[in-house]
Design a protein that fits this description.
- The complex is a heterodimer of chains A (307) and B (412).
- With 307 residues, chain A is α/β, with parallel strands linked by helices.
- Chain A has nine helices and 14 strands.
- Chain A has a six-stranded mixed β-sheet, with helices on both faces. A four-stranded antiparallel β-sheet of chain A has the order 2-1-4-5, with helices on one face. A four-stranded antiparallel β-sheet of chain A has the order 12-13-11-14, covered by helices on one side.
- In chain A, β1 and β2 form a beta hairpin.
- The longest helix of chain A is centred in the middle third of the chain and has 16 residues.
- The radius of gyration of chain A is 24 Å and the shape is elongated.
- Chain B is 69% helix and 7% strand.
- Chain B is built from 18 helices and six strands.
- In chain B, the strands form two sheets. Chain B has a four-stranded mixed β-sheet, with helices on both faces.
- In chain B, a hairpin with a 2-residue loop joins β5 and β6.
- Chain B is elongated.
- Classes of the chains: A alpha/beta (307), B alpha/beta (412).
- At the A-B interface, α2 and α4 of A face α1 and α9 of B.
Chain lengths: 307, 412
């Protein structure tokens, strides 16, 4: 499908430099409509710059961002909701009026803005603080208020940069529920976070950025498959023998750990010949291919360019 | 609603109800009222006792006359003489001087006057006072002695006492100021106070609003609200909205100040603020505000704390203080070449033109020219501020240099 045919969000060969330093280098990825998409990468990889370009806060040096097949205009960005990583709220103004102001900046009519703010304050259990100055709220409650500001206009695309940072486990669950609700309501969600377990639970697709470049992208299942059964010799297996571990196992596996009659290691060759070779060495009771966690994929992918 | 107006309305409402606005708005009228009524209050200070005086009178002819004049002219509210005095009459005037000095030393008197026996011919008087700062009282004493001497001189030359009375009468002096083809009665106090009050109001309104604008930008940057705002509106809309909103705050303050000044002037029977003067004032104030607001908005983008920003704005605010410092010269020489030339220097234009327009008839082409130059530079400053705002608003932890700013402006 060409970019113009897509109904989702297309990031096309984006380039952004700051004083000669390339922060984003020909980055392209697609976020399917209605999906939760994880934008991952180590600190300084260029994630926030990409997000700022998507939101129109920064201009791209090259490439473009398209939504529903068309380049995004400033007016269209009102259909987007954004929770920045570097976030804050006015401290000396009242919570409800601040959220109404931010909602109105997103184009909501006064009555509509007030109604939606009230509904979200109730849902996130903040209604008792509605008339209080924001500085009277705890850090967690301030983050919930910022989240309301990002989604109060019920955007079609929600961009969340480290949304779970600083939230306690209870509020993380509430936030996850709301993200799921947004998706159920048809919203497309771009999620940038370091919390890989949240990405594994929430995201259908990911894009990993390192040093301003795409390292890997695709659906979560594809990415994991690529790293578990691609025959790259880094897939971990766990083999339990009947009795002691026979000699010669290291011909087939780069042994990482041995415990009683179980050996854990990385494949040196393809899966099928390895299994046959191990069976020839001794009686195999169990042969498990362990799927790498997203965190392991992340670390491995980020380390690769340095090697 | 247009996002610019949404931002402007928000900025206006949250500032108008803040304690800072309330305090700063009240302080200025107090200053104005103080300036207008202070002279009256000083005059009323005659109600209290004046200098305690000793008069060393070598001839014995003067103390009585001087004392009589002082008592006639200066009494406290309860009718007592304002200048209680000891009279030391003796031909041994050196001894009396020593006695007066001892009284001064002991704190019995505050000053002593030595009238020589030859005073009628020499006109020489010595006055010794402990506190030289009591200039108003010294002046009252000097006038009383002067009157006694004049009266004696007239008698000595056998001048008709009626002529003396006529000569002492004040003439009827009426000042008129040229206003177009008309002449308007002017008042010295009005002529001097009005431009200074205008400049003070302008200074407070422009710089308080600009300072609030800068503080607001620094706060939004430091508490990271700005990125959320920029996801909804453009940086240009945000900056314009903030400048407009805080400009309306300044305008509100100016209207309050002008009303208070008019009412205070009316209380003294003087028209301090004329409709025409207020019109020019508002025109130059609006242009001046936008000019300085653009600078302050740019500075706000470049620093993360107010302390850092004040290093720059402290220097900036020295420029408009110049017209305040030289206001006496500008008031007395509104058409001097240096004043006319400086009126075309945009940072000074609003302040100098406000002074000149209230004290003299400025040629129309100078008014139009200064407005045009100021307007052009204001547009330029706003454009540059827009570029700096757009570029620097999300730059954190970086010390921006002047060459970098120049490069942004050139590229923008």
């Amino acid at each position: 499908m060409s970019p113009s045919d897509s109904q989702g969000l297309d990031i096309c060969r984006l380039v952004k430099t700051f004083d000669g330093l390339v922060a984003v280098d020909k980055v392209s990825f697609k976020v399917e409509p209605g999906a939760i998409f994880g934008l991952l990468g180590p600190n300084g990889a260029g994630k926030t710059t990409i997000i700022r370009v998507v939101m129109g806060i920064l201009g791209a040096d090259e490439g473009e961002v398209r939504y529903q097949g068309h380049p995004i205009t400033r007016l269209e960005s009102r259909r987007f909701g954004y929770l920045p990583e570097e976030r804050g709220l006015y401290q000396k103004t009242r919570l409800r009026e601040t959220l109404i102001y931010l909602a109105r900046l997103k184009g909501l009519a006064p009555a509509d803005a007030a109604g939606r703010v009230d509904a979200y304050l109730e849902q996130l259990e903040l209604q008792e603080y509605a008339q209080k100055n924001i500085r009277a709220l705890s850090r967690g409650n301030q983050q919930k208020a910022q989240f309301i500001a990002a989604i109060v206009h019920q955007p079609e695309v929600v961009i969340l940069d480290e949304p779970f940072a600083g939230l306690d486990p209870v509020n993380q669950i509430i936030l996850k529920e709301i993200i799921s609700e947004l998706q159920a309501g048809g919203a497309t969600i771009l999620l940038s976070t370091h919390q890989m377990e949240q990405v594994e639970r929430l995201c259908q697709a990911i894009c990993l950025i390192n040093r301003g470049r795409v390292v890997l992208d695709g659906s979560l299942a594809e990415v994991k498959d690529d790293h578990s059964l691609s025959g790259q010799g880094e897939q971990r297996v766990e083999v339990t023998f009947d009795g002691s571990i026979p000699e010669g196992v290291d011909r087939w596996l780069a042994v990482l750990e041995t415990r009683d009659s179980t050996v854990t290691g990385e494949l040196k060759r393809d899966l099928a010949p390895t299994l046959k070779g191990l069976v020839d060495l001794g009686r195999v009771l169990e042969f498990k291919v362990r799927e790498p966690t997203l965190e392991e994929i992340f670390i491995s992918a980020v380390k690769e360019p340095e090697a | 609603m247009n996002p610019v107006w949404l931002v402007a309305r928000w900025e206006y409402i949250i500032r108008i109800r803040s304690k800072f606005f309330l305090v700063s708005t009240l302080l200025m009228p107090l200053l104005i009222v103080g300036m207008i009524f202070l002279p009256v209050m000083l005059l009323n200070s005659e109600d209290v006792q004046g200098l305690r005086l000793a008069i060393v009178d070598g001839s014995g002819e003067w103390a009585g006359q001087i004392g009589q004049l002082l008592d006639e002219r200066h009494r406290t509210r309860d009718g007592a003489p304002r200048y209680p005095r000891y009279v030391l009459l003796n031909e041994n005037r050196h001894g009396q001087r020593a006695e007066a000095a001892a009284l001064l030393e002991a704190g019995v008197i505050d000053a002593y006057l030595v009238v020589e026996p030859e005073f009628i011919t020499t006109g020489e008087v010595s006055f010794v006072v402990r506190d030289q700062g009591r200039v108003f009282e010294q002046e009252q004493l000097r006038r009383a002695v002067q009157s006694a001497w004049t009266r004696a001189a007239f008698q000595r030359h056998q001048v008709d006492p009626e002529l003396l009375a006529t000569l002492k009468q004040d003439i009827a002096w009426t000042s008129y100021a040229v206003r177009g083809e008309d002449l308007a009665v002017s008042d010295e106090m009005q002529a001097f106070l009005t431009p200074i009050i205008y400049v003070l109001i302008l200074f407070f309104a422009v710089f308080l609003s600009s300072q609030i604008l800068m503080r607001s930008i620094i706060t939004e940057r430091s508490n990271r609200v700005v990125e959320m705002l920029l996801s909804s509106i453009t940086s240009q809309d945000l900056m314009t909205g903030k400048i407009l909103g805080l400009g309306m705050v300044g305008l509100t303050q100016m209207v309050i100040y002008l009303l208070v000044t008019s009412l205070a002037g009316a209380g003294r029977g003087v028209e301090l603020i004329s409709a025409g003067g207020a019109g020019y004032f508002v025109l130059y104030a609006i242009l001046g505000y936008f000019f300085y607001a653009a600078i302050y908005a740019s500075v706000g983008c470049l620093f993360e704390t107010e302390q850092e920003a004040h290093q720059v704005t402290g220097l900036l605010s020295l420029i408009p203080i110049l017209p305040l410092v030289f206001s006496s010269y500008v008031i007395t020489h509104p058409d001097a070449l240096v004043v006319r030339a400086a009126s075309f220097f945009p940072p000074l234009t609003p302040f100098l033109m406000i002074i000149r327009l209230t004290v003299t008839e400025v040629p129309w082409w100078e008014v139009a020219g200064t407005v045009l130059v100021l307007a052009l530079f204001t547009v330029l400053m706003m454009r540059w501020a827009g570029v700096i705002f757009r570029t620097a608003i999300l730059l954190y932890g970086q010390r921006v240099t002047l060459p970098e700013i120049v490069r942004w402006v050139k590229a923008g």
